[in-house]
């Protein structure tokens, strides 16, 4: 194969087939993908969760991950947030002509490792190569499906007054890392993306605590935007204690230099868990027993004070409204 | 909303939500999509077919269709080729900052109409907006799932010696139309894309004729490339009669001007059906009763002459090998 991706590799002809067998099957292959039919044949039953996400992150490699692993984590997490066991994912690659083959190989290899680690199979895919300039390096879509084990299914409209609001760890790591890498900023202390597959931890959580009301990953728009969506859907008020929200000192530092708020920065390996207050300690215990939830903590409570709003009780005891992100804080963050 | 797509619309914040509710839900809305959860919850059972495709067609509007309808047809057809009833699709939009909002609206509306016509629901989606220059106008990924009703499932490796090879209509219409529109060519007679959802016809076919061995849509690489894949997977020889392959005179004319072979041009509303010779007439009868199969005909037979090869018996009685497309004949055709 050439050391750069050529238009030929997206033709559907012989060159495409070489790329698929020599590279995609090498790292992603399994019984179903190897068949190379137009569609995969899967066995599934019951209630199915299905989610899709396109990844356009810039840069495509960043501390803690790359577009290949991120594309697995993002979709696996969205499926798992429904209280489901992610089983299968598809991948659709759009590649710019001229991308170094070594970069593509590194991305596909990383996708394969992330999928194995998450316990999902890549069962079917599609590769398009577009002429130089028609896309920036590489975009990846993944779509995932899984079997729902939680009953009732956690949902953004299921938060109730009295519920505890927990997060599984520190906020803002992914967003600040991607921005810092893109802009070539050298922060004092190194930050890295939290990109990770949360499904094993989430499955444990919903198996042991069917009382969970809401599970959500605060990706684009961050914690503040995601909580705003939940309070609006559920018509409750979220009261947060500022000092209890975990943010790494190096992320705080980077944000203050750049004028960013970590509560609006994307996370790719964290989740919000909302459940009746009496189960909060049990949930934290389960979360903290997993390396991906070791910094889990309770950050607030759902009340009936200002339905549809998120209120932050600041360090000094004041209250301020935490609005929804209006426009774009950071494009191409995932 | 602005008359152009702004970066803000991909932020995950308030501007994103306006775009989703005012535009996407308006044309694609249904019970499941309206919930706006991170993943859709679906009821499915048994053997499931799943397929994914990214669409990067240039131009985004062409005679007979656009990227919105094409994105539905392409995926619905891939699912249906497994002998499945397509049920649900996801859509992932990657939009270039500055795309006229009217273009986006026309595309989403067209996607909605195509989905309704095909009888599938768009159950979940994702929208990314990338800065100007990071992608060319708009790319759409769709992933579809459906319930398999054919037993055994049609498969590319199931062709047998003695099988008849049928096509559902004329070859090359889509490829020539897209190329002609992109290059601003004005052919003598107007050609238009055959982009269409074949699932209703295919479901009828596999219900009445469970004996079907292979169903495939000859998209990228065209009839010749798809038949090469099948003969290699099934280890049989496909002997085609050149004069029996339906090609519109205007497509023949356009191809001869441009030096293209219609047997290698993409189709988006046609399928190849391979089944035991004794069922060929019945299959043609079913196909011809449907407007999408009215030009269906038998074009050849599977033999044991040259396993893995496609042989064309020319108009003059000569035989020539029809190889697989090597590289890229036409980029961004779908």
Automatic annotation (TrEMBL), chains A, B:
- The PurM-like C-terminal domain covers 160-311
Its domain of life?
A: Bacteria
InterPro entries under this entry?
HypE, PurM-like_C_dom, PurM-like_C_sf, PurM-like_N, PurM-like_N_sf
What the entry lists under Pfam families is as follows: AIRS, AIRS_C
Domain PurM-like N-terminal span(s) in chain numbering: 37-148
PANTHER family recorded: CARBAMOYL DEHYDRATASE HYPE (PTHR30303:SF0), HYDROGENASE ISOENZYMES FORMATION PROTEIN HYPE (PTHR30303)
Concerning its family, UniProt says:
Belongs to the HypE family.
Q: What is this protein called?
A: Hydrogenase expression/formation protein HypE
């Amino acid at each position: 194969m050439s050391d750069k991706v050529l238009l030929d590799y997206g033709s559907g002809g012989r060159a495409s087939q070489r790329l698929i067998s020599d590279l995609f099957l090498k790292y992603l292959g399994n019984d179903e993908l190897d068949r190379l039919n137009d569609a995969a044949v899967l066995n599934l039953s019951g209630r199915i969760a299905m989610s899709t996400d396109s990844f356009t992150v810039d840069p495509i490699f960043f501390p803690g991950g790359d577009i290949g692993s991120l594309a697995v984590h993002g979709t696996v997490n969205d499926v798992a947030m429904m209280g489901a066991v992610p089983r299968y994912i598809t991948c659709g690659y759009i590649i710019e002509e001229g991308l170094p083959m070594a970069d593509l190989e590194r991305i596909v290899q990383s996708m394969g490792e992330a999928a194995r680690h998450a316990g999902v199979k890549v069962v079917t895919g599609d590769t398009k190569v577009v002429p130089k300039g028609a896309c920036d390096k590489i975009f990846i879509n993944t779509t995932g499906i899984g079997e729902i084990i939680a009953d009732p299914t956690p949902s953004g409209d299921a938060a109730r007054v009295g519920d505890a609001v927990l997060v599984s760890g520190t906020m803002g790591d992914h967003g600040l890392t991607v921005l810092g890498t893109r802009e070539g900023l050298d922060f004092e202390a190194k930050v890295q993306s939290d990109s990770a597959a949360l499904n094993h931890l989430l499955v444990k959580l919903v198996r042991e605590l069917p009382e969970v009301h809401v599970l959500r990953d605060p990706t684009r728009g961050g914690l503040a935007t995601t909580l705003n969506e939940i309070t609006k859907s559920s018509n409750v008020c979220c009261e947060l204690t500022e000092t209890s929200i975990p943010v790494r000192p190096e992320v705080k530092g980077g944000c203050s230099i750049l004028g960013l708020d970590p509560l609006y920065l994307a996370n790719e390996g964290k989740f919000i868990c909302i459940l009746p207050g009496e189960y909060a300690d049990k949930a934290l215990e389960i979360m903290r027993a997993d390396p991906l939830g070791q910094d889990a903590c309770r950050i607030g409570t759902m009340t009936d004070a200002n339905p549809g709003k998120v209120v932050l009780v600041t360090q000094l005891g004041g209250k301020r409204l935490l609005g929804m992100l209006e426009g774009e804080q950071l494009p191409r963050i995932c």
